[in-house]
Amino acid sequence: MSIPSLLCSLQILLFIIFTYQTKAVYDQINSYHYFCDQSNNRANYTTNSTYHKNLNTLLTTLTSNTDINYGFYNFSFGESSDRVYSTGLCRGDLLPNDCRSCLSGSRENLTRSCPNQREAIFWSKDERCMLRYSDQLIFGIMEDVPNFSSNNLDDSVDVNLSNEVVMSLLNNLTSKAVKGDSRIKYAAGSLPGPSVEIIYGLVQCAPDLSEKDCNSCLVENLQQIPDCCKGKIGGRVVRPSCNMRFETSYLFYETRASPPRSPPTNTTGKSKRSTIVGIGVAIPIGVVVLVFIFFCICLKIRKSKKKFEDIQEEEDQDGKIEVLEPLQLNFNTICNATNDFFDSNKLGEGGFGIVYKGRLSNGQEIAVKRLSGDSGQGDSEFKNEVFLVAKLQHRNLVRLLGFCLQGRERILVYEFVHNKSLDYFIFDQTKKAQLYWEMRYKIILGIARGILYLHEDSRLRIIHRDLKASNVLLDEEMNPKIADFGMARLFGVDQTQANTRRIVGTYGYMAPEYAMHGHFSMKSDVFSFGILLLEIVSGIKNHGIRDGEYTEYLSSFAWRNWKDGTATNVIDPTLNNDSQNEIVRCIHIGLLCVQENISNRPTMASVIVMLNSHSITLPVPSEPAFYMDSRNSQDIISWGHNLAQESINEVSNTELYPR
What we know:
single chain, alpha+beta, Killer Toxin P4, Chain A, Transferase(Phosphotransferase), domain 1, 3 domains, 5-stranded antiparallel beta sheet, 15 helices, receptor, kinase, repeat, serine/threonine-protein kinase
């Protein structure tokens, strides 16, 4: 065996021997810590009270979401004074299963150690995890009390050099940790210390803190290190919002290449005989350990190669959020604006979550879209919507004011649009009478201008993919604003079409090439606009229309009547017949947009020209993509499977019978 191998084996053996000799020293600082109701200004809860039941529910379900794999949980449960807030934070190196196991054990210890307390916090051994609950909002708020510090009882070989290295290491790690995102703010590393020693360090913040608050918390810990741990070979400072630790020659956290080693001890004064015996034992052990390490490294390389491809897309998405950092809002700010998401502020609820009305501290009214945990829109769609909408500025597009990506929370903050969405008016038998033709025409033209901006006039070329009445909002003057860009796709300047295996949107508004084959383009949005135009003119949803004993769909109903010269049958009876020619022209334009042949559909630029000029002769439309003659059931051709039983985002349902 070579000399380097012998030395490596000796080092491994010494770590094994040191483990037993130093255990007594570390037992004094590795116990758990807890604090109960540190404010002492609130009454305790009573057993089996509403608060007690809410607390039990929250703590037992806190880690139930297995999609969270970054070690941070923050949830609340209950209402008003009985609402409980809780956070669970695991050390950044813990695997998801180890994290959940640690928090589960902490839950049992915390409720046993702090019975009937309305606020409590628990740190497990080695600060592997922290569990905290309170009856007051604790999300996104820096807390520096209660805190504790402890040190290893052994002194460093070179006190001055050791102190210098410790402060330099922890300061560097602080700079890295504060740059983390809303999932993890954590950094660990090492520097050479006195003699042959290595000093290892770890710092971490609760990820719902802002960069500024995280830095402030860690700096306070750093300033406390000289008081508690000067000249010592190990120490830590722990607060509710952050923690910091260092150890000499003791790798106490998980790394990519090796698990934590047991702590060594000071070897000064050991006899030569002990060293010789150690070498003799180390040689055979070293061979086995080296083979094992080589095997583990090979497995790690194979796993890393696969993982690289999996995380590449996520890293690209994270880059988008960094660009939009100025728009990021604190969760506490949004809670205050919506009165803690109180039910009376609820504006509506859809497949992606609930929308609340709110008011910022400056008096500005806002609409807060809070995504549900089980919504179809995940992190990718969320970041996509933020990235796209923040760059768009047009009077017919809803304006994004900010966003919150904090723990499990995914929140979008928009300008508040007073008159709800178009479907609230157009499909209601009473309210649609308020939409006289001039107003409907203004809405049609505004929607067309908004889509044209997305397709051709903005710096980005964007395909919306989910145009429908519920995604068109109306302001105080009934100007339309296109909303919900969670499914939008960005195109290159010269790109005209793309394919996808994931069909998103709402059946009934989808172009046939997209619904059946995943092909989408600007003409896909044109098709959706055509359906929307026909709905505005007729006041009828794009689903079955009874005609005697038969049922047909809006596009085929409009096509048949236009072809037979009875297009006025399509017009909403509440409209003024004085504008009949203009209304029939709009039906004609709508039928041009929903043609099956993509190349026959007009562009949005052409649509706006047609709408603005009555002197232009319109081409004759061909049959719509989903045409069914109600008088001849033989004209119905099924796709072979029913695509249209439900909307992708669970907002609207439309059955289709395409040809």
